[in-house]
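Re: your question about Arc/MetJ family transcription regulator

S., sorry for the slow reply, the queue was backed up all week. Below is exactly what I fed in.
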Amino acid sequence: MIFKRVGSTRPYPEHGLESRDWAAIAPVQVRLEDLVTTKATLQLDTLLGEDSTFYGDLFAHVVQWKGDLYLEDGLHRALRAALQKRSVLHARVLDLDSRSTAGEGE
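Result:
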């Protein structure tokens, strides 16, 4: 199995980040086997869309929520990495776990 799980939804709360907001998050290496997809299929219209990471950000977008890493954008990059027999992907990781923990004490 390439991914931890293949999902078809985004189970985490809306984070409000636009495509260009992700640039503030430094990329890190993420293991493909730790990722849960948020799309069950790869669609060319989404892949070639204006706000797709294919044309914009060089890195995939991952959301950490309740201990899982959800691949929000960059499925095409992850599949390319797997086909090239690489086990890691460079991604920007938005940690919603720490955001929810920080908000609990307020």
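The mean pLDDT is 86. The first strand starts at residue 5 and ends at 6.

Happy to talk it through on Thursday.
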